[in-house]
Design a protein that fits this description.
Blueprint: H1 3-9, H2 11-16, E1 32-35, E2 38-41, E3 46-48, E4 55-56, H3 64-83, H4 87-101, E5 110-115, H5 121-125, E6 130-137, H6 140-149, E7 155-159, E8 172-178, H7 187-197, E9 198-209, H8 214-226, H9 240-249, E10 253-260, H10 263-268, H11 286-301, E11 312-318
Parallel strand pairs: 4-7, 5-6, 5-8, 6-7, 8-9
Antiparallel strand pairs: 1-2, 2-3, 9-11, 10-11
The structure holds S-adenosylmethionine.
S-adenosylmethionine is lined by residues 66, 69, 73, 116-119, 121, 137-139, 142, 161-163, 178-180, 183-184.
């Protein structure tokens, strides 16, 4: 087989080629081309593509926080995926998914990016609604789990730092982050990158832990320190008053902020932290019980004065269209 034919059938190349226009070198901000199973920038940096088709953009210059998170998630990836598979966790997540889905437009989502994608949660949730999807995460073990579950050639996965995205300017119609913002301490850099990669008129959808209600703030201060699956130095739930100026500073306009999850979330959604919670899967009718708790939580967090007191925020921010000249 000639070298050219070999390149044509190289699955690593086939996985990345349809996404070339959406990528750029994180070091120089310049376009990339394929060369012998790697992505190469004009300046000569080479970014290898791993056997599973994940392109590796992790350089020596990634942020200190990203390095900590990379080691952390590479270590806990298997446990993380297992914890999300319990029936009560799935049932409660379905409720939160619905809250996010109600924010999406009826039309298609275009080209989407999921930042801190882990196992590709958003990509899965909006399957069939996008043209192409790119997932970026710092942990290769999380990305391998994502690639295993999502073989669709319209989805690419990249290993990269959310504060130095290997993605092109103004290339994406929609950006998603589900449980990723609170892992990135440098919110100015993160939101700056999201604004940069969005097209004018593009939307940023997020769902994150939020601690605007004092009891949750206090509880999390403890939990983040004692849980082996959380890292209190690099993980920080959102606060409304802190987040809005960072979004605005990046040029994004917040259009929706509503919280969900209360006592039911506390009990049923922390199987990584509350070991006894894992035993709930053996309770007969646990799915029905969970649904009852979602209704209770929904009732509480939709009361007047309580819409910002939940444990998870679902938000939407928009990159304004350029003002007409
Ligand atoms: C709580 S998980 C959520 C992932 C996804 N929503 C899921 O459920 O699979 C957070 C993810 O953020 C990633 N992460 C943390 N810091 C990051 C950074 N600076 N750049 C890219 N990914 C990061 C971690 O590797 C992890 O996969």
């Amino acid at each position: 087989m000639s070298p050219d034919a070999a390149t044509l059938v190289d699955p690593r190349v086939a996985a990345i080629r349809p996404f070339l226009d959406l990528l750029r070198s994180p070091a120089r901000g310049t376009p990339l081309r394929l060369d012998n199973g790697a992505l190469v920038s004009e300046g000569g940096e080479r970014y290898p593509i791993e056997e599973s088709g994940v392109a590796l953009f992790v350089e020596s210059t990634i942020s200190v926080d990203a390095k900590v998170q990379q080691a952390h998630y590479d270590r806990i990836a298997d446990a993380y995926v297992t914890n999300l598979g319990y029936p009560h966790t799935r049932e409660y997540t379905a409720y939160l998914d619905q809250a996010l889905l109600t924010q999406l437009p009826a039309t298609g989502l275009g080209d989407i990016a999921e930042i801190c994608c882990g196992r590709g949660e958003a990509v899965e949730l909006v399957a069939g609604r996008f043209r192409r999807a790119v997932g970026v995460d710092i942990s290769l073990n999380m990305l391998k789990a994502a690639r295993k579950d999502h073989q669709d050639p319209a989805i690419a996965f990249l290993q990269g730092d959310a504060t130095r995205l290997p993605l092109a300017d103004g290339a994406f119609d929609s950006v998603f982050m589900l449980g990723g913002i609170h892992h990135v301490n440098d919110r100015a850099a993160l939101f700056g990158e999201i604004a940069r990669i969005l097209k004018p008129g593009g939307r940023f959808y997020f769902r994150e832990p939020v601690s605007d209600f004092l009891p949750w703030l206090a509880l999390r201060a403890i939990i983040y320190r004692i849980s082996p699956t959380l890292d209190h130095l690099t993980e920080r739930p959102l606060r409304y008053q802190e987040t809005v100026p960072y979004l605005t500073g990046a040029g994004l306009t917040l259009s929706s902020w509503r919280t969900y999850g209360f006592i039911g979330f506390c009990l049923l959604m922390n199987s990584d932290v509350l070991i006894f919670n894992r035993l709930f899967r053996f309770i007969p009718g646990i799915r029905g019980i969970t649904r009852a708790f979602t209704r209770l939580d929904d009732w509480i967090t939709s009361r007047r004065g309580w819409t910002r007191r939940g444990l998870q925020v679902v938000g939407v921010a928009e990159k304004p269209r350029a003002a007409a000249a």
